[in-house]
UniProtKB/TrEMBL annotation:
SUPFAM superfamilies documented for this protein: Protein kinase-like (PK-like)
SMART domains, sorted: CHK
Organism of origin: Meloidogyne javanica (Root-knot nematode worm)
Start and end residues of each CHK kinase-like domain: 1-133
Pfam family, one: DUF1679
Residues passing through the membrane, by range: none
Name the UniProt record assigns to this protein: CHK kinase-like domain-containing protein
Length: 169
C-alpha cells in the first residue's frame, strides 16, 4: 500500500504542497490528509485484509501500470517483464491490480469492469490453478473477501494518486 512504501516525511512534504494548490483540490483533501501519513492508517488497512477478510499479504510491485510492463516485440500479447521495482513491498494482494486499473482504465469502464467482477474471478481462478500445479493448497478466501480487499486497495491507490498531484503542477 502507498503508506508502506513511501516514508512519512515524503508524504508530509507532498501534503504541504497539495495544500498550496487550488481550493477545489485542497478542501476535500483536508479531510483525509492527516490520516494517510500516519502509520496507524497503514496498520488499519493491513489488519482489515488479514483479520476481517482472511486475505494474507503478498509481495507486490507497488507501481504497476502500462509503462512498467514490457512485452515481446514478436508477440505483443505476451508479457516479457515487469520493470521499476523500487516501490515493491509486502502488502495487499490487490494493490497491483487496483493500481493498474486506476492508472490505465477510464473511470466509467473501470467501474463497469469492477461491477462485473470478472478480473477478481480470473485472478482467484489463476492463483488457485497455479497453487495446485505447485502442489499447494488453494487459498481459503473467496471472491467476496477478495472484493473487500480490492476495495481497500482502491482507496489506498486513489489516495496515492492524489499525493502525486504536485508532480504535475
Amino acid at each position: 500500500m502507498w503508506g508502506q512504501s513511501v516514508s512519512e516525511e515524503f508524504s508530509s512534504a507532498m501534503i504541504e504542497q497539495i495544500m498550496e494548490l487550488d481550493e477545489d483540490i485542497v478542501e476535500p483533501f483536508k479531510k483525509i490528509g492527516n490520516i494517510v501519513i500516519k502509520p496507524d492508517f497503514v496498520k488499519w488497512m493491513k489488519e482489515k485484509c488479514e483479520n476481517d477478510y482472511g486475505v494474507p499479504e503478498i509481495l507486490t510491485h507497488g507501481d504497476l501500470w502500462n509503462n512498467n510492463l514490457l512485452w515481446y516485440n514478436n508477440n505483443p500479447s505476451r508479457l516479457a517483464a515487469f520493470i521499476d521495482w523500487q516501490l515493491a513491498t509486502i502488502g495487499n494482494p490487490m494493490t497491483d491490480i487496483s493500481r493498474l486499473m486506476l492508472a490505465t482504465v477510464e473511470p466509467d469502464l473501470r467501474r463497469k469492469i469492477e461491477k462485473e467482477g470478472k478480473i477478481l474471478e480470473l485472478y482467484l481462478n489463476e492463483l488457485n490453478k497455479k497453487l495446485v500445479e505447485l502442489g499447494m493448497e488453494k487459498v481459503k478466501y473467496g471472491i467476496e473477501e477478495l472484493q473487500h480487499v480490492y476495495n481497500l486497495a482502491i482507496i489506498s491507490q486513489a489516495i496515492g494518486r492524489v499525493m502525486e498531484i504536485p508532480f504535475f503542477e
